[in-house]
Amino acid sequence: MITSPDPEGREPAAATIFVCTTCRRKRDDMPLGYDLPGAGLAEALDREVAARGLAQLTVTPVECLAVCRRPCTVAFAGPGKWTHLVGDLDAEAHVGDIVTAALAFARSADGIVPWMERPQSIRSGGIARVPPVGFKSKT
Ligand code: FES
């Protein structure tokens, strides 16, 4: 698991990718009629982050993000930033998209990434965004 701060002095962790490991994905070929793809997704993300030396990202498995009907589900969170909840992600096909989105999120000042900079899977899987603690509306 990647943790910060990085011993080589690189950019400190700016984003956490929370990954639900308990979502059930319907699978008629499995004995119980479902599998749990989130654990594999968390491991794949962890490998990708480590392989690319992305010390600004942390991958953290979590049991349930309360979006159980839209596996795989992840959340992007960081200090002082809006938190984004995204579902309908494929554990194999969307690893790169999730890392791309997390890097854009980490670079952002407030967690709001322009729509056009979000991979298509992240756009279409958007579920919710939640402001950071202490947020005050400008209106
Ligand atoms: S079990 Fe994954 S969001 Fe609830």
Derived from helix and strand composition plus strand pairing, the structural class reads alpha+beta
Cofactors, ions and other ligands in the entry: FE2/S2 (inorganic) cluster
Strand content: 15-25%
Give the biggest beta sheet.
5 strands, mixed
Q: Please state the average pLDDT score.
A: 91
Going by CATH, what is the homologous superfamily? Glutaredoxin
- Spell the H/E element sequence: EEEHEEEHHE
Widest β-sheet, arrangement of strands: 4-1-5-6-7
Stretches with pLDDT under 50, minimum 5 residues:
1-7
So what's the overall shape?
globular
Cα gyration radius (Å): 15 Å
* Amino-to-carboxy terminus distance: 41 Å
Number of helices, counting only DSSP H or I runs of 4 residues or more:
3
**Domain tally:** 1
Helix content: 10-25%
CATH class membership: Alpha Beta
**Secondary structure: number of strands:** 7
- CATH third-tier fold name: Glutaredoxin
CATH architectural arrangement = 3-Layer(aba) Sandwich
SSE arrangement:
Elements: E1 15-20, E2 25-26, E3 34-35, H1 37-51, E4 57-62, E5 74-77, E6 83-86, H2 95-107, H3 120-124, E7 126-130
Parallel strand pairs: 1-4
Antiparallel strand pairs: 1-5, 2-3, 5-6, 6-7
This protein binds FE2/S2 (inorganic) cluster.
The site of FE2/S2 (inorganic) cluster has 9 residues, from loops.
